[in-house]
Amino acid sequence: MDDQKLVALVDQVLQGDTRAAARLMRDIDDQMPQAVLALKRLHPHLGRAAVLGVTGSPGVGKSTLTDALVTRYRRTGETVGVVAVDPTSPFSGGAILGDRIRMQRHATDDGVFIRSLATRGAFGGLTSSTRGVVAVMDAMGKDRILVETVGVGQDEVDIARMADTTVIVLAPGMGDDIQAIKAGILEVGDIFVVNKMDREGAARTEAELKTMLAMRDETERESDWDPPVLLTNAVEGRGLTRLIEAVARHRELLLADGQRRLQQRRTARARMELVNLIQDRALQEMYHRLGGQEQLDRLAQVIAEGRRDPYSVCEELFDRGPDEPNP
Ligand SMILES: Nc1nc2c(ncn2[C@@H]2O[C@H](COP(=O)(O)OP(=O)(O)OP(=O)(O)O)[C@@H](O)[C@H]2O)c(=O)[nH]1
Ligand SMILES: [Mg+2]
User: Fold this and answer.
1) How many Å apart are CA 276 and CA 246, to the nearest integer?
2) Which residue's CA lies nearest to atom 9 of ligand 1?
3) Higher confidence at residue 27 or residue 177?
4) Strands (E), 101-143
5) Interatomic CA distance for residues 210 and 63, integer angstroms
6) Is 150 in the pocket of ligand 1 (CB under 6 A)?
7) With a 6 A CB cut-off, is 61 part of the ligand 1 pocket?
8) Which residues contact 201 (CB under 8 A, 6 or more apart)?
9) Which residues surround ligand 2, an ion (CB under 5 A)?
């Protein structure tokens, strides 16, 4: 893409052009070099949107809740972007996921932009494409961006950390669900929701969650924010007003003191982004030097047979130039 086209694309995105934005998001997904050029130019324009993460185990009602929130925010005239990240889906790039997220009723609403992402590529592409897509929606001028992720692995914790405010969703009767969220995700929750309050066991899930939150290490807690635990029925829209109020209160906290807290989060996020970029780049570079999957398999076998050790193979890769032959 020549420079003029790039400038035109960036301008269109900044004016909120849906087709230009969709095109750029596809390029981001396909890891096209021009996408990075566009993201570089968009960077100074970012940071206006309020990003809300909605994270939780499969089936707890994240999409239903997100959908209901979109409806509420649209009622107040806010423009909304939705990013649905599904790391378990074998589909890439979205149309099929579009059905699953049950948001067709917003499909004809210009004020709502929905995009689905699924795992693809070999190297941590999901985190960076999610970040890219959020950036494009922010640049488009969306007031609010909702990011739905299944809270299972490290990728998802990273994605949850991209939000200004993170809502962790649970549902009663999910077995060891409470235990499962212990692994890392608890610390990133600003607001906790026990959805499906109409189901048996909601009160117990709520109580267990509160106990767990109370047991959190003092140092893990933010002194001026006590994460609320709220009950909702996403299908009927019950409890949503209180959830929206909690999100607004958290936003106020972030913006207080000259946006001190928001800036802290942004710095933490920028640090993580930089580390991710360095990791991805280094991994790609080394993979390239290695000579791809076949060589990786060959070396793995040699190491497994004890003929070489992984430490020296790794050192050799880093020490030699890009165009030298394989170790
Ligand atoms: N009874 C009840 N059912 C609900 C509630 N919220 C969602 N559901 C139902 O739970 C099922 C799963 O809802 P989704 O919104 O798809 O859940 P999800 O967390 O997005 O699921 P994944 O994206 O697949 O992880 C659907 O059949 C919903 O209709 C609720 O508050 N009460
Ligand atoms: Mg969903």
Assistant:
1) 31
2) 61
3) 27
4) 112-118
5) 24
6) yes
7) yes
8) 172, 173
9) 62-63
- Asked whether 64 lines ligand 1 (CB < 6 A), one says yes
Q: How far is the CA of 188 from the centre of ligand 2 (A)?
A: 19
Report the C-alpha gap between 275 and 268 in whole angstroms.
11
| Residues recorded for the chain | 327
Decide whether any atom of ligand 1 lies within 6 Å of the 195 Cβ: yes
Q: Report the separation in Å between the CA atom of 20 and the middle of ligand 2, taken as the mean of its atom positions.
A: 26
Q: Which atom of ligand 1 is nearest to the CA of 150?
A: 25
- Beta bridge pairs of residue 173: none
Both tokens of residue 69? 């929130």
Q: Residues 219-269: pLDDT tens digits? A: 666 678 999 999 999 999 999 999 999 999 999 999 999 999 999 999 999
- Cα separation, 132 vs 39, in Å, equals 7
- Residue 166 carries which DSSP code? E
Radius of gyration of the chain (CA): 22
Per-residue pLDDT at 143: 97
- What is d(CA 225, CA 319) in angstroms, rounded to the nearest whole number? 48
Mutational pocket test of ligand 1: of 64, 69, 82, the residue with most ligand atoms within 8 Å of the beta carbon: 64
CA distance 193 to 191: 7
Instruction: Name the pLDDT band for 29 (thresholds 50, 70, 90).
Output: confident
* Cα of 62 from ligand 1 centre, angstroms: 6
CA distance 217 to 57: 24
- The predicted-structure confidence for 54-99, as pLDDT tens digits, reads as follows 988 888 899 999 999 999 999 999 999 999 887 555 444 344 444 4
What type of residue sits at position 109?
Answer: D
Q: What is the pLDDT of residue 187?
A: 78
Confidence of residue 160 (pLDDT cuts 50, 70, 90): confident
Q: Is 59 in the pocket of ligand 1 (CB under 6 A)?
A: yes
Helix intervals (H) in 141-239 = 154-160, 177-180, 202-214
